[in-house]
Design goal:
With 416 residues, the protein is of the alpha/beta class. It contains 14 helices and 8 strands. An 8-stranded parallel beta barrel has the order 1-2-3-4-5-6-7-8, surrounded by 4 helices. It is globular, with a radius of gyration of 21 Å. It starts with a helix and ends with a helix.
Length: 416
Amino acid sequence: MALLGAMIKTSMAALLTLVAVALPAEAATFAMKRGLNLDQWTTWTGEEKWNDPNAILPYPEWRKYLKGNDLKALKDAGFDFLRMPVDPAPFLSDETLSLRDDLYASVRDSARMINRAGLKVIVDLHLIPAGGSRKIGMSEVMDDPETFDAYAELVRKMARTLSQEDPGQVALELMNEPIVDCDEKGTNLWPDRQKTLFAAARSSATRLTLILTGGCYSNAASLAKIDPKTIPDDNIIWAFHSYDPFLLTHQGATWAGDFIRYVTGLPFPLTAVPQAQLDVALDTIRAHIKAEAPWTRRSGMLAYLDEQVASMDSDDKLLGIMDAPFKTVEAWAQANGIRPENITLGEFGMIRQEYGNSYVMPAKYRAAYVRDMIARAEAHGFSWSVWGYGGAFGIVDAFDGERAEPDVMDVIRSLR
């Protein structure tokens, strides 16, 4: 693996120069407008079962329960593309050595299935944290040079797998929400790492549109740190994500830090209900924090809640919070000569229900949020893909085979 890493690194400068000469200066081949993120895993098969084709294939796992008619229904609803998350961990696990070719082929076949339904597809390499039986996740890829080199080789092989597909129908996203450069030290490691991944992908897929992003969860400010001139290629779409305001979009999420899990019952916008009703909701949240949060964190959480509410307690304030990422990206794009159609809001959405939590966000608030975010993206000329098909943020499915409320999908249908 060390030798592989050295070979990849020594070829980067030459390859970047090569593609600068070889590729024409033109817009991205892959064009998109309105999209939906598919599910990644639903049963979270343990790594000890990844050597069993019956457990891990077809891949990604959504193919076990979504059929061609389900995909065509998304086309009929008004989507023109799907973002297909693919967990890279099985491609980095020794458990899948005998199935590796089958896994790559299954990803390609999944993309073709989406295309047959009349939809374009972004194959999104979507790392998540390691845990349980999973040995490799985002931290391992970012923190260990040999594991990052293995990930770069995965990117190269995935690009080669997709290289013969119609570049107008299939694109490749090199890494979802890289968790790097989020520290207070102000590190800027991601641009060079992304250049390594770009070169690996482009070395085996010269026609494929590649989706690139900024560091630190693909936020807008991190995208603005990227100098696109260091990526000598015009067949690129630049992605950013926004779930602002987080206080409202992630209510009850137990995996999103130690504060937001205590927050439920807030409307969107906060002004959607009378002040007395909002005060009751806030008092309930405060009571939860006082009763359940670690005592060393309670006062800080209570102060943070008040601070966040004060930052969005009027429509003008909320407008400023939601507009900020779009303005940041637009200014960056204009400064670097990037066309709006080559920018995508890759993820946004509002939680419906946290796993194991009885609270369900009223559908009208979710629909209002999605409608407002779509309007912002389209006003700027950006494409978008809402998160996601099912699960906690599901707009089509909820849990256990149940359907989500139709409100958000009605917003999508109204755009046709």
